Give the backbone structure.
Amino acid sequence: MEVERLDGQASVRALVYSATIENPNFWWGDNGLGLDLDACASILASAVGPSGPNVDYLSNLHSFLEEQVLPREITVLQLRNT
């Protein structure tokens, strides 16, 4: 999708994933206030879904973004070893 820049320069093309609470797989913590980075990392490191381990999904997403998107403009995602 095309996204307008806040600095007024030409719009940029962006890849967007939007999650909503209507999705049965969406979870924002038991209290609905979200999770801190360490809690998210712990879940991602151990969770497995129908498509396989979530850590593999995140790693593949990161590789795709590095190869196809990130070198062009900005870094969106960094993986951290914990």
Observations:
- Confidence is low (pLDDT under 50) at residues 75-82.
- The chain is about 30% helix and 10% strand.
- The chain has one domain: 2-72.
- The longest helix spans residues 54-69.
